[in-house]
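Course assignment 3, question 2. Fill in each field.
Student: A.L.
Task: Predict the tertiary structure for the chain below.
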Amino acid sequence: PRRVCLSGQIRDVLLDRIARGELRPGQRVVEADVAAAMRASAIPVREAIRELVAMRVLDSAPHRGAWVRQVSLAETIEAFQVRAVLEPLAAESATARLCGRCGALRRAAEAIVRSARRRDFAEFQHHNQVFHRSIVAASGNSVLLRLWDSLAFEVRTRFTIDYLTSVDPVAIAREHEPIVEALARGDAAEAAALLRSHSNGLVAYLRSQLPADGRDDGKASGR
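Answer field:
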C-alpha cells in the first residue's frame, strides 16, 4: 500500500510538471532521473510511468523509454466537447449532495480567481481541475468520474493557456461563482446550463484557432 501511494504521488508530480511546462512535448521522462529527484526506488517510479502511459499522458516504445505525448488542437477541442456533456450530466446528480454544502467548492472558485489575478495560469488550471472534478465526484457516478478523469491531460494543454492570455482571465474565473451558487441552492438545471456554457465558450475559441479548412494543422502541445 505504501508503494502504491508513492507511485500515485510521483504520478501527480509528473502531471504537475507537465501542466507547468517544465516537461515539454516530446521530452523524455527518464526513470533514473525521476527516482533520484523523488528520492524513491525504481519500482514506484516505473509504476507511475506505466500509469501515465495508460492514461495517454506519456508515449513509450521498447528501448526508447517514455516521453511526454503531444496533444493536438483537435484533440483538445474534442476533449472539451465531451466535458461539455459530462459535467452538466454530473451536475444533475451532484446538486442534491452539494445543496447547502458548497464550502469546499466555493473555496476552489475563490482560488481560481486569485490565480487569475496573479496571472498564474498553471495554478489556475490546477484549481480549475479541482473545482470541476469535485462536481463530477459529487455525482456519485464512478463511470462518469472515470470518463472525466481520462480527459484530464487533453484539457491541460498550451492551447488552454493561450485562451486565458487572450481574454480577461478574471472574468473567466468568475464564471465559476454562479455555478457554485446554483448548486448551493439546489438548482440543477441552472448549474448544468452554466457548466455547458462555460465549456462551450472555450470550445468556440479553440475552433477559431483551427485553419480555415477546419482541419488540425498538426500543431500540438503537452502543457
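Instructor remarks: Strands lie at 28-29, 58-61, 65-68, 71-72, 220-221. Residues 55 and 150 are 6 Å apart (CA to CA).
Grade: pending
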